[in-house]
Specification:
Elements: H1 2-21, H2 27-44, H3 48-53, E1 62-66, E2 72-76, H4 78-91, E3 100-111, E4 114-125, E5 128-141, E6 144-154
Parallel strand pairs: 1-6
Antiparallel strand pairs: 1-2, 3-4, 4-5, 5-6
Length: about 160
């Protein structure tokens, strides 16, 4: 009898976990994806105000990524993050042809008003194609999801393990 109860409990747990993986996307997950897509769109449209509006704008905001020459960039604090973006946007004479960016392999973990997000991004633009593994920390502020941190590892498949 005890063994049957254990088997039933384990079966219920297994079925519950299986069903969890097939649940439809939540409204929060949809909103988070929309913010991420909109941030890229605004940046390449040279829309600084639109881009900045998608960020939390806190002293804890950060960005980090690797460059094609092997160097890395890391910035902490909204003032520095926004200054770097504004400098690049202001340096453009005309908006570049926007790249086509697609994303898959999304993993979104929401806990209260914070979310950890990862995805693979594929960018095709005038300079060719590139693949990156992307990570975002998102914070819900006044009911809206905002970006607080971006990490992007470009051409990560070429990195030696």
């Amino acid at each position: 009898m005890k063994n049957n109860l254990i088997v039933m409990l384990l079966s219920t747990l297994f079925l519950g976990l299986s069903a969890f993986k097939t649940l439809p996307m939540t409204n929060d997950e949809t909103a988070i994806k929309e913010v991420i897509v909109s941030e890229t769109t605004a940046f390449f449209a040279l829309d600084y105000k639109g881009w900045a509006n998608l960020w939390l704008q806190s002293p804890h905001d950060s960005q980090a990524w690797n460059n094609s020459d092997g160097s890395v960039m890391s910035t902490i604090g909204w003032d520095k993050v926004s200054a770097g973006a504004k400098e690049w946007i202001d340096s453009q004479k005309v908006a570049p042809a926007p790249p086509t960016a697609t994303r898959d392999n999304w993993d979104i973990h929401i806990s209260g008003d914070m979310a950890a997000v990862s995805f693979t991004q594929y960018v095709k633009g005038s300079e060719g194609t590139s693949t990156s593994k992307e990570f975002r920390t998102m914070v819900r502020k006044d009911g809206q999801w905002k970006i607080s941190s971006v990490q992007a590892f470009w051409d990560y498949k070429n990195v030696k393990k």
